[in-house]
Amino acid sequence: MLNILFTFGGNAWLLQKNHLKPEKFIFFSTVYQKLVHQKPYHLLLFLFSILVHPFTYFTYRKRNHSNTYNQAFALRSQYYIEHGLVAQWQKEFEQQEIAKATFFKEAVLESQIQSTAKQLAQRKLQQQVDQDLQKEGIQQLSYDQFFNQQLTNKRFVALTFLPAVLFYVVLILFANPFLQFIIERILQSFIVIVGVATLVFTILYLSPFDPARNLLGVEATPEQIVNFNRIHGLDQPYLSQLWNALSGLFTFDLGTSFAGKEDITHSIATKFPVTLEIAVLSLLMAIAIAIPVGIISAVRPNSYLDYTFMFIALIGLSIPSFWQGLIFILTFALKLQWFPATYNPHNWLSLIMPIVVLGTSITASIARMTRSSMLEVIHEDYIITAKAKGLNEFKVISKHAIRNAMIPIITVIGLLFGGMLGGASVTEKVFNISGIGSYIVDKQFIPDIPAILGGVVYIAITISIVNLFIDIMYAFFDPRIRSKMKKS
Asked: Are 214 and 446 in contact (CB under 8 A)?
């Protein structure tokens, strides 16, 4: 039994409230309170705990937790009314309304003035009593607040854990800021992938190319075209085709291609690793070369090395990949005979020229970004302080400057990697590589909708995974990001 005593105007008002004190813990309540302020999470948590809410709402209505507030509100309102404060406010509002009507030369009925003044006085009474009760610590308990209080009761959690297991799993996962950050990025990536798939499918659906006419030829009869469209589902409505395409993507069942009746999932599974291998090796080559070059150029700005490295980087950015590939084939394959002219999966030497060609432009881009980022960092106050403490230049650069300069460099690396996967088709064509890039190019002129959609979406999935890794790397390199995650 809890007694609430408050004094107002010389009168003492006593409220009594039955209050059980179950054993409490704040883990689930704290996480729920953090997430419930965001509408998407509020809706998600409500759906995951939908089986529990009928019981808790019935309990909320039965206990009538707002009864204490209503009693206090009625007592405090009665005090204001009995002491004539409400009548005084009403007279003041009547005078204001009369003055307003006189100023604007409006003809207003006395009954209307009294009605308006009465409404204004009641509103002021509501506000005044609310303020008084808040100062006393008496608030009206909403259903969300009641449900949040129940989460502090171990007995309630134990009884509702199985019906709302997903609800509690979400709270447990989101209790860790870093884990919440990763889950949010995964959900965002899923939305991006669905958006990319929908956009690509819509473009192909609206394309003026006719797959049946392109594959069957100009001499195909209307019956053959209709039969082709029926077999491949091209005669169905837009939404039906879109649903079939999306469901096939996420169940890894893309069906067969329009041309050749090949299994699309198997084709992508054999071609995509080749492109991914070349792209990853090109990226590693670029990082190994570009970051040291950028650091040296930044540490020795306007020196001979700086001018030389940046000039070479500018040349690397300016050379078209197809022209560079042809020059490499003529020089290193045909004339010097160091490497095979075309790709051979059984000969690792055939990978060297495609890797160098694909990695040339990104090496130049990463080197220039590293130089720019390092130049900004090495003039910061904390770098000057580190030098003033007597640290040698190598320790200052390796322990302080590089770590803080890595954020924009990592961003550029992620963007360039995505561009490599999407733009590897030119290099693959030059070196006769049967990768995903050339596969999509070959299929787009039909257009072979399932094949193109599968190739593009699985590239998007890979890029999303890389971006997720980059976001995690942000938190690893920059402690400020980790601090913001914990504060949020």
From this structure: yes
Mean pLDDT of the 245-263 span = 74
CA distance 329 to 160: 68
Complete DSSP assignment for 96-139: HHHHHHHHTT----HHHHHHHHHHHHHHHHHHHHHHHHHHTT--
Please give the structure tokens belonging to residue 349: 């030497």
pTM over 0.85: no
Nearest to 329 by CA among 337, 311, 341, 338: 341
For 19, the token pair is 């209050």
CB 173 within 8 A of CB 181: no
Measured CA to CA, the distance from residue 315 to residue 310 in angstroms comes to: 9
CB-based contacts of 141, cutoff 8 Å, min separation 6? 65, 66, 69, 149
What residues contact residue 269 under an 8 Å CB cut-off, 6+ apart? Answer: none
56: helix, strand or coil:
helix
CA-nearest of 437, 430, 464, 462 to 451 is 437
Distance between CA atoms of 230 and 308, rounded to whole angstroms?
62
Give CA separation, 213 vs 225, 259, 447, 453, 469, in Å: 7, 12, 11, 20, 44
Q: Are 271 and 435 in contact (CB under 8 A)?
A: yes
Phi, psi at 108, each rounded to 5°: -120, 135
Q: Which helix (H) or strand (E) holds 271?
A: helix 264-299
Q: How far apart are the C-alpha atoms of 167 and 172, rounded to whole Å? A: 9
**Residue 10 banded pLDDT, cuts 50, 70, 90:** very low
Instruction: Count the helix, strand and coil residues of the chain and give each as a percent rounded to the nearest 5.
Output: 75, 5, 20
Q: In this predicted model, what pLDDT tens digit does every residue of 265-280 receive, in sequence order?
A: 777 788 888 888 888 8
Tokens 């209790």 sit on residue? 175
C-alpha distance from residue 212 to each of 216, 224, 240, 259, 447 (Å): 6, 8, 19, 10, 9
The rounded distance, in Å, linking the Cα atoms of 235 and 68 is 66
* Cα within 13 Å of Cα(187), Cβ side: 9
Q: For residue 146, which of 207, 225, 65, 39 has the smallest C-alpha distance?
A: 65
- Residue 7 forms beta bridges with which residues? 12
Angstrom distance (rounded) from CA 416 to CA 273:
18
Q: Are 294 and 370 in contact (CB under 8 A)?
A: yes
Identity (one letter) of the amino acid at 457?
A: V
